[in-house]
Amino acid sequence: MTQSTVESKSKKDINNGKTPAKETILSPRFYTTDFEAMENMDLSINEEELEAICEEFRKDYNRHHFVRNSEFEGAAEKLDPETRELFVDFLEGSCTSEFSGFLLYKELSKRIKDKNPLLAECFAHMARDEARHAGFLNKSMSDFGLQLDLGFLTANKDYTYFPPRSIFYATYLSEKIGYWRYIAIYKHLEKNPDSKIFPLFNYFENWCQDENRHGDFFDALMKAQPRTVKSLSQKITIGGSTFTHPLFDYFHRFRYFLNNLPLTSKLWSRFFLLAVFATMYARDLGIKKDFYSSLGLDARDYDQFVINKTNETAARVFPVVMDVYDESFYGRLDKIVENNKVLSDIANSDGNKLSKTLKKLPTYLSNGYQLLRLYLLKPLDSKDFQPSIR
Ligand SMILES: [Fe+2]
Ligand SMILES: [Fe+2]
């Protein structure tokens, strides 16, 4: 059973009308990785750029930015019950994903600090930023009499293991997509101040610059990384047991050799771009659609803008990017959104579990087919793409 991670300020009055957060495939995840490989990474190829980025982090531009002003007083009471619920869900999802970034960066900085101090320092600065973001969101939740129990979340959430390379792809994309999401909302609300339902959005412009810098850090890290490691691990873990032998080092070297082939990078780039874009699109046009409407945004237009921009940005570091301009691209994503609606209608209908599963099967297959076709869609070569922004 999923337990609630939300509790009200007064512990006697748990939830205060807020339904517990359900764990779904689309909810933010917590990650863990191979810390040994991380600490052994050879950054010499791009050390200068990483040092420059670290220097930017040290300046801590947003040190005084996340301070609440009087605009927050009484702002929560102004929301109608429906908007309030949508907004609280948004706060909860955002706070969880900021906090998930904090946990990963914090753990990384702690585990690699002896062998890889530059990298550890960068991760510590990013953890500082993410803690600030999560804390600021949590403060807004307390305006609604709710608070995310971050300690509970840390201890009880499942951690998904990703090897370092996948962590780079996934976090790079989530930082850059975060940047475009925040700036798009900020710019929209700047033009439409009547839709600014909460003063939190005033902070998005500087906030997104943090995410942009985090993304640039992973950009530099991936550029430093092709030769990846100084020495590889002599350990191997099979089914929870760890074995040590010098020969395993060759196995890891072979694995890294395969990982660093240009073809492998291209396949992974397509995989992560598609996974991140499809997840966001399905969530925003599904359960989050009404939230965007409450800000006067059309979720489809908003997501397509964010995806196109993130895709352009990713062309600076990924060898290939998605052909988001092919008309089948959004057509297939829309079909997935439609399918998800069918799936949730079946889930909410009467009937036993088996009959529901059987009813869902063709729709699952259709989703799988759409994703496969999207994955196989001929990608755009980053070299020929958007030279103006490179
Ligand atoms: Fe953040
Ligand atoms: Fe970030």
Q: What does this molecule look like?
A:
Helices cover 61% and strands 6% of the residues. It has helices at 35-39, 47-59, 81-112, 117-143, 150-156, 164-191, 204-224, 248-259, 262-285, 289-294, 299-314, 327-348, 353-376, and strands at 6-8, 30-32, 146-148, 159-161, 235-238, 241-244, 320-321, 380-381. Strands 1-3 form a two-stranded antiparallel sheet. A hairpin with a 2-residue loop joins strand 5 and strand 6 (241-244). Mean pLDDT is 85; it is low at 1-26 and 227-231. The chain binds fe (ii) ion (FE2) (2 copies). One fe (ii) ion (FE2) binds next to helix 6 and helix 7.
Jot down its keywords.
390 residues, mainly alpha, two-stranded antiparallel ribbon, two-stranded parallel ribbon, 13 helices, 8 strands, 61% helix, globular, disordered N terminus, binds fe (ii) ion
